[in-house]
Amino acid sequence: MDCGKLRRIARCTLAIGVLALGLTASTASARGIQTGFLDPSALSTGTPVYTPAEAASRVANNAGSQIVRLYLYWNRVALDTHHAPADQSNPSNYDWNSDGLANMINAAQSQGLDVMLTIRSAPFYAQGSAHADSRGTFKPKPAMLAQFTEAATTRFSDVHIWGVWNEPNLPSFLSPQYQNGKLYSPKLYKSLLHAAAPVIHAAGGTVVAAETAPFHFVFNGKENNPGPLKFLRALLCMEGRSHPKPACNPTPKVEADVIATHPYTSGNPWHHAVRKDDVSFGDLPLWTKLVSAAERAHHFKNKSGGSSVQLWITEFSWDTKPPDPKAVPTGLHARWTAEALYRAYKLGINTLIWGQLKDYPISDRLFFGQYQSGLFYKNDAVKLSLTAFRFPFVAYAKNGHIAAWGRTPGGDPGTVKIEKKTSSGWKKVTQLSTNPQGVFQKTWSSGMTSGFLRATLTGGGSSVKFSLKRPPDKVLVLGPFGCGGQGSGNPPKPGCPA
After folding, report:
1. How many helices (H) and strands (E) does the chain have?
2. Is the pLDDT of residue 17 over 60?
């Protein structure tokens, strides 16, 4: 997510609909869901909130996660941003630890974590000269990106997951979005993807593509950028919700192994974005349907030469109250966290990367004042949501049945008890085994329509208690990031600290 775009974020309406439970088996199918964090050491702030070693330890041990996503800023590792090195594919011509990146990669791998590097931000010499900018957005040069990607994959040969650009449907990352009045960014992005992907595949890596921002914005009646669905339709040669566009066959096919998105949401995980073609969590079924249709139409080419792709969420979170007075209360935040993992799993999304490990101080700093979505407070105290993220568990009562789903910490297989809260303590309701990836689900007959359930591992450890009574959606009128990031010199937002 662009750290400076909170003030433009779209408000979302209350989701309408009834949860489709669909849980009938005593154990889940043999698949799991992996979790991780974006920039857990907060290297991108310039003043890291954790040392790389501490961040990696907390991700692996406290949060029970498997992956960290880091930004590889091309313009930061370049030794001279205005003049290209004589051999751009030689890794010795870059400073790979200019912002602590190499240290974070080493720390993560020492904890057994997978690392995903998202390449972004071209140096001046690799942009179209007319409007080159310090954020590295303007018409990055595909041939130079291919050479840089070769240098990066050589230097980090033990990194196997690579993202090609961040949120390419936003002008703050890729520009221009429109050229001569026509949508241009999908074509521009495709040229970058097809420059970098073959290099990554030749090195044995996995290519993560798209990583789209959730919203489009309109200024003075003019669209500033495309929504993620509009962007994907153009990129994938599709039209409508799920139809290949006639007489349009991507040539070459979109080379990728994973399609990712960033479905930030101003409500619970069933909440929809306001505008057509935007993707909050409640709109993920439309997103998965579009990608799956392009897959069936053979519009992809993965590293094995096939047309299948995985679905990932590579950035997502909500701020909490406290510290943000316009964010999600901590108890509700824990529920939404568990439900987000449940919904992602049910939609066939197998990786969910949380947007932040530790809160930043709330401030008017555009680029980092708005994120209070950490699972640790800034004083290192643990939020309730950390347990919900580590050991997600949900349970819903409907039509005389209770349907429950969960995943053990780290996705380790085991035996789980489901318990209900009584006046004398917690009482066992049922017991079941997980699948090999630690996922469990079961539906059973019950007259319970209220009260609390939880999941407990036989070896110790419990989930957050989960209310059978579903709370109403809470609409976050200032968006998922609440008060922060309003911009120096601007008046405070309503209800926010001065």
Report:
1. 9, 25
2. no
